[in-house]
């Protein structure tokens, strides 16, 4: 059955790939991104391929902007994918306080306020799926990523709480936790980690990023998509509050 799916940070990377693929399954996609032009451009690409999409500017770091968006956007959302994310790599002593707080706004507070906005209509319709794009760093930690790790860990706690609050309805909330995916965000991390550790970018890939993974491979976008499709299904109605690791065996150790 066709569903209306809102994806944050959907103009590029994981968000755009998921949007592009979900329309092929007949779903209607609401592409949101910080910049209006980027969102509209991404939606236009999907429409050119025969898909059904709309593009809107949405700053998930601004709770007032989220509230204003949903005051205007009246269409019910069946599936919310909290995907928007940013990264900053630095020792805590060198981490700008405002940047640390900003990462929390984007990746923890934003998903909470987005979820708050869509829940009433999900309850009215008797169906809802909230899927957080977490990270392996929702389960383990790495040096120089205190803000990112804290926000992603927080998503799991948030999902557990919401699962309790939505247990009386056909609404689920889960967090997909992939290890490193070769996206522009990770490409930037490789360079930043190389600088922090004083090593080459290839050494970062081999000795930091892939070293903890028995499979020694970056996660592919289709693996994340498959997990999302699984969680969206009616048959996943009792899978909630879960952190689903796509980690090549990282957390087995």
UniProtKB/TrEMBL annotation:
<dbReference type="InterPro" id="IPR020904">
    <property type="entry name" value="Sc_DH/Rdtase_CS"/>
</dbReference>
<dbReference type="InterPro" id="IPR036291">
    <property type="entry name" value="NAD(P)-bd_dom_sf"/>
</dbReference>
<comment type="similarity">
    <text>Belongs to the short-chain dehydrogenases/reductases (SDR) family.</text>
</comment>
<protein>
    <submittedName>
        <fullName>3-hydroxybutyrate dehydrogenase</fullName>
        <ecNumber>1.1.1.30</ecNumber>
    </submittedName>
</protein>
<dbReference type="Pfam" id="PF00106">
    <property type="entry name" value="adh_short"/>
</dbReference>
<dbReference type="GO" id="GO:0003858">
    <property type="term" value="F:3-hydroxybutyrate dehydrogenase activity"/>
</dbReference>
<dbReference type="InterPro" id="IPR002347">
    <property type="entry name" value="SDR_fam"/>
</dbReference>
<dbReference type="GO" id="GO:0032787">
    <property type="term" value="P:monocarboxylic acid metabolic process"/>
</dbReference>
<keyword id="KW-0560">Oxidoreductase</keyword>
<dbReference type="InterPro" id="IPR011294">
    <property type="entry name" value="3-OHbutyrate_DH"/>
</dbReference>
<dbReference type="InterPro" id="IPR050259">
    <property type="entry name" value="SDR"/>
</dbReference>
